[in-house]
Amino acid sequence: LAAAAAAKAAKAAVEAEKRKRQQEAEEELRQRDAREADRRIKEAELRLRQEAAEKAAQEAEQQKQQWEQKQLEQQEAAVRKRLQTQRVAAERNLEQAAGLPPRAKVR
Q1: CA distance 74 to 81
Q2: What is the gyration radius of the CA atoms in the chain, in angstroms?
Q3: pTM value?
Q4: Which string of b and e fits 50-77 if b means at least 16 CB within 10 Å?
Q5: Which residues contact 96 (CB under 8 A, 6 or more apart)?
Q6: Where are the alpha helices (DSSP H) in 1-107?
Q7: What pLDDT does 101 receive?
Q8: Do residues 85 and 92 touch, judged by C-beta distance below 8 A?
Q9: At 6, phi and psi to the nearest 5?
Q10: For the chain, what is the mean pLDDT?
């Protein structure tokens, strides 16, 4: 009877050890899966940050180019206006030198 009880106790101890090892193995798998998920999340976040930085850099470059284009257009307009003013003044000087009556200023 004692031997049967001892065998039963030993069998229960073996089963308990099996359950413990199974639980440890499952916990290790859960931890490994969690680490892998964390790694993937971090990679995705990094990729998103890089894409956002690239997009911001492209937008900044585009704004810079637009600003430069606007500056060029303004400079060109100023030069055209100055040349027009000089042309009109030269025409008036020629007309005056030729003895023609002064014309009315166009505003």
Answers
A1: 10
A2: 44
A3: 0.54
A4: eeeeeeeeeeeeeeeeeeeeeeeeeeee
A5: 102
A6: 2-97
A7: 84
A8: no
A9: -65, -40
A10: 95
